[in-house]
Amino acid sequence: MAASKEEKIREMIEKMDKELDEWMESRPKRKPDKDAWTEDNWEEEMKKHPAFCSEAPEDVDNAEKYPAWAALQAIKYDENDTPEEKAIQYKDEGNHYFKLKLYKKATIAYTIGLQQKCEKPEVNAILLTNRAAAHFRLGNNRTALGDVTKAKELKPDHVKALNRGALCCMELKLFADAVSWCDELLRLTPEDKTIQQLRAKADKLKRSQEKDRRKAQAQEKKQKAQHNRLLQAIKSRGIRLQMPDSPDSSDEDDVAESMDRLQLASLEASFPSTGAKVCLDENDCLVWPVMFMYPEYMETDFIQEFHEESRLADHLDAMFGSEQAPWDVEGKYKPDNIEVYFEETSKSKLHKVTPEMMLKDILSDPRYRVLAGTPSFILLPKACRFTEEYLRKATAAAVS
Predict the structure, then answer these.
(1) pLDDT for 120-141, tens place per residue?
(2) What is the average pLDDT score of the chain?
(3) 3-state secondary structure 20-41
(4) Is domain 252-399 in CATH 3.30.950.10, yes or no?
(5) CA–CA separation, 186 vs 99, rounded Å?
(6) Per-residue pLDDT tens over the stretch 331-355
(7) Would 69-172 and 252-399 be classified into the same CATH topology?
(8) Which among 53, 83, 243, 323 has most CB atoms closer than 10 A?
(9) What kind of architecture, by CATH, is found in domain 69-172?
(10) Greatest distance between any 2 Cα atoms in the chain
(11) Domains of the chain by residue range
């Protein structure tokens, strides 16, 4: 069967394609231009052209590097344009970036638009409101609120500004202010269901916030009363307080200030697992956290609740009367073989304490300062070489 006309044409085209490929292969090879587009980079290179790209280069102001961009900018922003025309052009540019979710670039465009010194308040109000929207998307809620506040001053009936002001206040938990913004908005759009719902939510949160504030104020008042009772109890016993790296607070007028610093530096900072701090019990007796230090072995014991009418001897009996401390390898630390000292911080001088004394009597000693709200004592074994050497060094340091 004779070939049809279409088959003959197809055969001819295939033959011509084959001959063209053979001719191309026979041609001498040339090195491509270093700036030529390739199969791998042509799409990337094409996107660099301002006609096809989705955003401007970071250094777009470099006219020598981006002459095409410079030409387009010159066309877009004519020097003969009025400030209003330039402001609107930058507003449109900002809107373009905003649609692409390039919010930082949008804020820059709106800012440049505001710098054109346009004399029409409505144009500047729009620029401010749009910039607020971009800042809002970036999470800069307080900056956004500042912009819409200025926009409202320029154009009090600008619905978008009022709407965004209410939303900013909600994000900032300024619920009372959010209600005010919604009320202004509802005077313009009384039938807006969305704003009605937003106002209802803001009002509910405002009431809850006010309730929490009243509760916090009542709690603060209660804590202040307890604080004052504690201060009076400490002052009445002649106990002196001192914070680390601070002057002595022996004067009566300074006790309250010292105690404030004590509360601020709360003992949780030193003993995070206990949270212990001085307090009054039901009989208005002071209960202190107390530290025992054993410099021979660099060990410490922390007693969370040491009643002021308890004796040091009572705690020594409980701690060393029946069991040997794991670090006491020589068994020297026994209730009747322990000497107790406190340090007079102003003179770096050690003073020996009679263990049979009650804690409140020791703390009332004019030479004693309660450091950081935690009375502390140094415990040393009697008739021991370490004790003799330790006391000798302490005496020498106090004299010097």
Answers:
(1) 999 999 999 999 999 999 999 9
(2) 82
(3) HHHHHHHCCCCCCCCCCCCCCC
(4) no
(5) 28
(6) 999 999 999 999 998 788 999 999 9
(7) no
(8) 243
(9) Alpha Horseshoe (1.25)
(10) 131
(11) 69-172, 252-399
